[in-house]
Amino acid sequence: MNIHEYQAKALFEKFGVPVPKGAVATTPEEFITALSQLPEGPTMVKSQIHAGGRGKGTFTDGYKGGVKFCKTKADAKEVAGKMLGNTLVTIQTGPAGRKVQTVYFTVASDIKKEYYLAILLDRASSKPVIVASTEGGVEIEKVAHDTPEKIIRVVVDPAYGLADFQVRELIAKLGFAGAEAKNAAKLIRNLYTAFWETDAAMIEVNPLISTPAGDILALDAKVSFDSNALYRHPEIVALRDLNEEDPKEIEASKFGLSYIALDGNIACLVNGAGLAMSTMDIIQHFGGTPANFLDVGGGASKDQVVAAFKIILGDKNVKGILVNIFGGIMDCNVIATGIVEAVKEVGLKLPLVVRLEGNNVAAGKATLNASGLKLVSGDTMADAAQKIVKLVA
Amino acid sequence: MSILITPQTKILIQGITGDFGGRHAKLSLDYGTQVVAGVTPGKGGQFFEHGAHKVPIFNSVAEAKAATGATVAVVYVPPPFAGDAILEGVDAGLDLVVAITEGIPIKDMIRVKRAITGKKTRLIGPNCPGLVTPGAGEGSKGGCRIGIAPGYIHKKGHVGVVSRSGTLTYEAVYQLTSKGIGQSTAVGIGGDPVNGTSHLDVIKMFNDDPDTHGIIMIGEIGGNAEVEAARWIKANCQKPVAGFIAGATAPAGRRMGHAGAIVGGAEDTAAAKIAVFQECGIEVAATPSDMADALLRAAKARGTKLA
Questions:
Q1: Interchain CB distance below 8 Å, B248 and A51
Q2: Cβ neighbours of residue A328 closer than 8 Å, sequence gap 6 or more
């Protein structure tokens, strides 16, 4: 689960990670109250959406930049008016962009130097890893590619936690000294505590900055959480912003379905994540384009299948549907009955290819054939994929 | 033979009194698997009954092991308690713990993995379908079924299957069985980022098992476990190997940050993994329908008999 920058910074402050003073507004009326909390002077205006690349993004009305520096609070108020309610397109939002529903004002800090700092899971060692660099405020992938020696990695032993010698190593490699070193060490320790205590999946601070006064601040903050652990963090669940999620995905999750919308025109309904992913692959292999990822899970009850069909048909690009079920334990006839009832209930007009395999498959196929529905049977995944691609073409 | 488990392996089930664990306990008993004990704290002394089977329930894994000689535990308990259940099996000194549970917090698994490092117990999973060593009976009955895989699609034989995904494992096994090719053991290692046993761990066991003549390795986008296994295969494995990577069309996702990209490395996309497979002499299945055929091609090229 992702949260906004302003929410992440509030979390940072709770854990003793210094951030520039800021305030949010969700309506033009709130601009004044928000700005009144900040001192007069240079102010940053930051669009709050769940995507990176905001600074270099462009709004759909042509206005450039989702993050802006303003010399005065008056300028900041004017800029915020252009962002709020406008739709921002960045390299991570896709062409549709994301509507800005919250604007975040912060004091524009004096920057001495920019750094990079992140904490996430290192899959190779199954341990948390702190990634840091003296090259901050730039694309870290480019730094990793061009100058890999400038990427510092410290793997933390979960049995002991972040050790002091590891903090000293980070401080030394980042080149901090004196008051900066003391402040940076405290920030790194507190950020690690925040990561560990909140079940974060990833924390990224880019840039982390030093100021001429010797302060170390998190100038930006991206935080995502392990969705498996949300049950023990009601305070984090409360930060969820449904405006940032696809309504179809929210609807799907209510029925225990895992759904992700894509750009193609062949919808698929599959049991199991691996099979669902490879069903998309095989559609593309035979020249079609998948409209979605949809995993109905281990079972496939009638209610789930009906809900799945409704969600799929809510996507206007869909021209055909491929159902691919491997009924391992589930009785295929139960699944077939569910499909028939679901198709009748939603009044399906589009071509439908069903590939059913597994337990009691003969009875399942008989049920499909006897239904009088205009559906096409596929014997294997390849056969079914070729058939739906042909029907949609 | 087979790897990890045989039809004689005695297993205990943690969570046998739950709906999920109970349903699969019955299916395993029907398959002929030696389910010798159940563990549910507070229900020790009761029995899990199914047909003629009467499986004793114990309060702890240690008690169950001492009383029945079970060497393998399978964990069906809900996510908040699953990490603890795994540690209990490891503490009892079992040979193998198989965690079926889906949705265990990553932090719990980070701690579990650290805690079991250096212990004799192997962990498979979590979020996995388990493993099956098929038996010689009808529908491969008489084998050892641990977890949630459908037993009847298997056939006793000489192909090892290893996969992160349950349904893709079934797909591969079913293709093999439909062509009359049996399996030594099919292992689902699970889809979570932190798991107990990797592709490479299983590949090494298949390589050492004289009864396994060929291997199907099924992977997904993300991480570099399949790449690690492929490189080892190139250097060490003399058996035919077929591979499939799911997720070629998966969207990059609305990833917020960039840290994952530099930690995951450049080799975690489907295209990159497929390229490494080819470079390492693994016969790549172009589609999931092609997995068994790909292994047949690899076996033919090496003159290996699979059935």
A1: no
A2: A358, A359, B148, B149, B150, B153, B166, B167, B170
